[in-house]
Amino acid sequence: MPRRRKGGIAGRRAFVHAIAHIELNAIDLAWDMVARFDNPKLPRAFYDDWVRVAKDEAEHFALLSQRLVEMDVSYGDLPAHNGLWEAANNTRHDLLARLALVPMILEARGLDSTPVAAAHLEANGDSDTAAVLEKIGQEEISHVAAGVRWFEFVAADRGLDPVATFHELAATLFTGSIKPPFNAQAREAAGMSEAYYRPYERHKFNED
Ligand SMILES: [Fe+2]
Ligand SMILES: [Fe+2]
Asked: Tens digit of pLDDT for each residue in 61-93?
């Protein structure tokens, strides 16, 4: 049964560890959103949103850390990827760029991939981790929604076209690639119009 190996314990540990690392970074990035960008025009609701996101991310990290312990490892036992910090560093100078890259590109990618991963884990008999991922996937919708809402607020404040500005920021500052398949339903629930991601559908053909 070679297929079962993919869902084996080592693979699942590495996967859960990778997601836990993203959630830990996400806690710091939510607080960074609160503290870094000084803009007196931002209303109280902006700060309330990111405090709420930080609380969600802390819960996500705690749930995944617990799953790691149940799999006989701890967070920090395995190497971790630095992509989120790279995006954070590239956007440290500008709130609009940060909103584009972190919630609207990276967290939105989580909306696409989390339900697929949850279904895969469920099919491999790990319904505990699947349940955690399903909860995370649901809650991340509101994080992407906050990203879209404040991105459009700041773009309007600067007199910029939000969609064109988003694509420009993605092209100049994002070192990864925006790739399908997209979870159109979750993205719509987050208030993200298709104009933000449909242009990247072509990657599907380029990468084949
Ligand atoms: Fe999260
Ligand atoms: Fe999030």
From this structure: 999 999 999 999 999 999 988 888 899 999 999
Distance 139 CA to ligand 2 centre (A): 7
The pair of structure tokens assigned to 73 is 């490892």
Ligand 1 centre and the CA of 24: distance in Å? 8
End-to-end CA distance of the chain: 28
CB 96 within 8 A of CB 169: yes
Q: What angle do CA 204, 109, 30 make, to 5 degrees?
A: 155
Task: Determine the pLDDT at residue 8.
Answer: 82
Separation of CA 60 and ligand 1 centre (Å):
5
Q: How far is CA 44 from CA 34, 39, 41, 47, in A?
A: 10, 11, 10, 5
pTM of the model: 0.92
Cα-to-centroid distance, 133 and ligand 2 (Å): 12
Distance 61 CA to ligand 2 centre (A): 11
User: What span, in angstroms and rounded, lies between the C-alpha atoms of 128 and 16?
Assistant: 12
Ligand nearest to the CA of 30: 2
How many angstroms does the Cα of residue 142 sit away from the middle of ligand 2?
A: 8
Would you state the pLDDT for residue 51? 98
Tell me yes or no: is domain 2-206 CATH 2.60.120: no
List the domain boundaries for the chain. 2-206
Q: Are 99 and 154 in contact (CB under 8 A)?
A: yes
